[in-house]
Amino acid sequence: MDTPPRSAAADAAAPAPGGLDLATLAVANLTPVLGRYFERSWSHGEGHRLFDTSGTSYLDFANGIAVSVLGHRNPRVTAAVHAQVDRLMGPMSAIGYAEPTVRLAIELAKTLPDPIDSVFFMNSGSEAVEAALKLARRVTGRPGIVAFRGAFHGRTFGAASITTSNPNYRQGYEPLLPSVYVSQYPSVYRDFGGDEERAVAVAFRHLRDLFHSTISPDEVAAIVIEPVQGEGGYVPAPPAFLQILRRVCDRHGILLVADEVQAGYGRTGKMWSFEHAEIVPDVVCIAKAIANGLPLSAIASSRALQERWGKSAHGTTYGGNPVSCAAGLAVLEEIRERGLVANAAAKGAELSAGLRAIAARDARIGDVRGPGLMIGVEFVTDGATRAPDGPTCEAVIQGCADSGLLVLSCGVEHNVIRWIPPLDVTSEELAEALGIFERVLVATR
């Protein structure tokens, strides 16, 4: 698939060398709280490349953490945003309906399996998770929430309560949401040395022991899981484990919530990552890629479930903003008309093969994993013990940026590079990225 061509307007907008140092300018007034992977000053984006204020080009395989799945200035998305801004920009949800919001709900529901047919729009992934927790507790009348070790679900209070990918996300905020229970995630490489069957068996035993010793399943409102863990290390849950969770939830009247915030929208080579396991969750949390960079998120479930939740049981001021929803419609049109889910599967296989070939030549890479274009490359100091190597991972990321490639880290030990190129990435771009990555690996030995 070809990326959109670079426009003359973008060339005219490009800054002269020696551009503005935004990092220095920000010191006095912009918060020091927000963490950043790089201290670089960005000017504009075009296609699959970002440009800093000096005009230097970077192949963008970070995408704002899996957000800009169609790259920058996608013509269809940009045109839809401009047209909607000229027509209606403010939120309408409290006083009626806006056409893009209604149409996006219709089109989004078409991508989801039955009986999921109703969409509640919000603004961020954390908000979607919060809404899912509220829905689960109110509909079931139960307090318990089960999450999994290494998960990341967001930074707001409820979302942070079920997040365990980094203690800093929770430190100083206790006590968090009560009645949250954390079970073992089947991390096949990290905890079980590649033995998928054992990983599933042990993780299921942990869940079963939790129900026997700590909370009865009849008191659990929801089990919340990322079918592919994001911040926790790009770790796919084996399909067999997701199938077990579906059966457990059916047996005990528990809602199964799939957090598809990072793994959804074609990222894994299927529209939704839970499809790899051939299951249907009760609630799906959606964000990041949904509007290619504009703030928008959603939860989706059956209408019957949302009717049980009740009118005005939850609300939003900005959720479903018509400009964001216009962009969201354009994103779905691009994905459908350009066959980008299939492209993610094909290019993901190509990228995985290239990364595995590099890993075979570098013992510091312990694992290459993940479906589609959601691939984790894990660095270790010792292949036998799988001891994590965060410093090498960080050095490689910074070296890649210095060489014109943007990739990000993840994992509890910050030792995994996440590969999340746009869904319409080309073979030529993959070859360019792999070449930079291997050269940086050699230079950091």
Question: Can you describe what's shown?
Answer:
The protein is α/β, with parallel strands linked by helices and 445 residues long. The protein has 15 helices and 18 strands. The protein has helices spanning 8-13, 22-26, 63-66, 75-87, 99-110, 125-140, 157-161, 188-192, 196-213, 239-252, 303-309, 322-337, 340-359, 390-402, 427-443, and strands at residues 42-46, 49-52, 57-60, 118-122, 144-148, 180-183, 220-225, 228-229, 235-236, 255-259, 283-286, 297-301, 365-369, 375-382, 387-388, 405-406, 408-410, 416-419. The strands form 4 sheets. The protein has a 7-stranded mixed β-sheet with strand order 4-12-11-10-7-5-6, with helices on both faces. Strands 13, 14, 15, 17 and 18 form a 5-stranded antiparallel β-sheet that branches. It has a 4-stranded mixed β-sheet with strand order 1-2-3-16. Helix 5 runs parallel beside helix 12, helix 6 (125-140) packs across helix 11 and helix 9 runs parallel beside helix 10. The longest helix is centred in the C-terminal third of the chain and has 20 residues, at 340-359. It is globular. Residues 1-16 have low confidence and may be disordered.
